[in-house]
Structures are given as structure tokens and as C-alpha cells.
Amino acid sequence: MSTGRRLTPRGEERRAQLIAHATSLFATRGYHPTSVADIVEGVGVGKGVFYWYFSSKEELFVEILLGAQSDMRRRQQRAIADLDDPLERLAAGVRAAVLWSAEHRDLFRLFEFAATDDTFADAVRRGRSVMLNDAVHHLHAAIEAGRIPPADPERLAHAILGVSTLVTLEYVHHRGEPAEDVADMVARFCLGGIGAA
Questions:
Q1: pTM of the predicted model, to two decimals?
Q2: Closest to 106 in 3D by CA, of 65, 66, 76, 75
Q3: One domain for residues 140 and 163
Q4: What is the domain extent for residue 43?
Q5: Can you give the CATH number for the domain in which 24 is found?
Q6: For 154-189, b where at least 16 C-beta lie within 10 A, e where not — what string?
Q7: Helix, coil or strand: residue 110
Q8: Which of 80, 96, 118, 182 could staple 89 via S-S, CB 3.0–4.6 A?
């Protein structure tokens, strides 16, 4: 939030309502066709309330993206918290990302758009770089432990992210296949692709 204001519980609730409604509108109508007026109308407040919380529609959209990326990462961190083996952590993180994406279809759509829009591509790249660095860390550990053949961990991390994103898009979002099955398949494929025994 650009204002730096401390919000009351009611203020936090109103702000969350604006974010949730905007997320739904952006996902169904698109970012550009959705106006601030559309967002506030759906929540039943005036534009002044919107600008109390956000300086612009662009700022709101970036906040939605960053919040979603943080939420996905928290899901992954919970999934790997009790795992010591780097390959198990990697597989659990991949599975968690696929399942999160399946549960947050609107946000997944927004990432697709944002990655292709000059205004938001940097925000998406920054978030991806955090996830890539997480994967690189596990891949380094797996290579050092002799669990996978030596290779460039950054390239492997990009391949894992690409596979998980595209397979989730096609099989979960477009074909409607069970997310658990797709998550398991992606994790197995990624482990095989990096040479895990």
C-alpha cells in the first residue's frame, strides 16, 4: 500500500474486498477494459475510497500480482518444511505450485496477461526470480549430494518452472483434469528431467 497508513480491521476488510473484486473483474473482463469505477461499483463504495487505499489501478494490479506470488511461495514453503532431502523438497514445491495454481484460476489468468504486458512484466519477473532462486537452492543441494548429475541449476530451474506452468495451463485450466494427478505427473517429469534416480 503506497500510503503507509495503518488500517483498522474494517479498513483492512474494505481493502480486501476491493482487491478480491478487482481480481475477479481483471480475470473475467481483462485489465484494460476494467475501470476504477467498475471496481468500486461492485463493492458499493465511491472512487474516493479506492484512492484512499491505492494510488492507481496499476498499483492495485501490481499488488495483486505480488500478493499472489507471495501466497504461492508460502504454500511451497509449508509443503517442504519437514523435508530434508533436496529432491523431495523440489518435488513437493512443484506439486504445491501446481495445486495453488489450480485453486487460484483468476490469479493464474492475471499472471498470463501480466507476463505479456510491458507495464507489469517486470513485477512478474521479480516474483519469478524469487521462485527460481528457491529451486536453484534445492538443485545445488541435490547436485552436491550426488542425487542428480552436475548441470547448471539455473537452467534446470527455468525448465522446471516452464514445464509446471505450461502443463498446468493446458491440463488443469484448459482440459479440466484433476489437479492432484497433474501435480504428480509434473513432479515426476521434472525429477526425471533433471536426472534423478
A1: 0.90
A2: 65
A3: yes
A4: 1-55
A5: 1.10.10.60
A6: eebbeebbeebbebbbebbbeeeeebeebbeebbee
A7: helix
A8: 80
